[in-house]
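Progress report, Aim 2. The chain analyzed during this reporting quarter is listed below.
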Amino acid sequence: MTNESTLPTFRLKPGTAITQAEPQERQTVRRTSPALDVMTDLSRVRAAMTAPSTSLREAEQLMIHQGVRMLFVVNALSKFEGLITSTDLRGEKQMRLVHERGARYDDLSVSDVMTDLSMLDAIELERMSRATVGDVIATLQKYGRNHLLVVEREGTSGACSVRGIISRAQVERQAGLVIQTTPIATTFAEVERALF
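Predicted structure tokens for the chain:
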């Protein structure tokens, strides 16, 4: 025989609210602060995700609903394929595709304008643990990026998983400064994408 007992219940009344998680207050940082202070740790914060087939309008609504400016793009097997940002939703690439295809904006999907996995810059978590916010700022500026991924190696296999993300906007908010970046093509594919 157990000492378990049922808990008393009651019926909810109209107007009952749902408690919302408070955004974590990010601490103010300096250039000399640890870089991990500006990283969104995906072991603590759920990653905002979408599928490649999601329409651009749906992706925009997901971003608004989740209060983010970037979504991880994952396939049906939950494999990481790339990123889409709020800038991608209204950028030159989607306008070019509308004209080239004779399509409407509503016909475009995330896969049409996302940044593919092969084009993303990443830093190892182990290296980030020894870096400063100043190092992060210099990296964002050097590569002209708004986001950097932080990856963690798994055992001896060398496989890695995305552990965190650095957002230029978040670093700016926490450091109280503006980071000037200019997009820089680092591969022939990026040069071609910028030209055509």
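The chain has one domain: 35-191. The radius of gyration is 21 Å. These observations will guide the mutagenesis work planned for the next reporting period.
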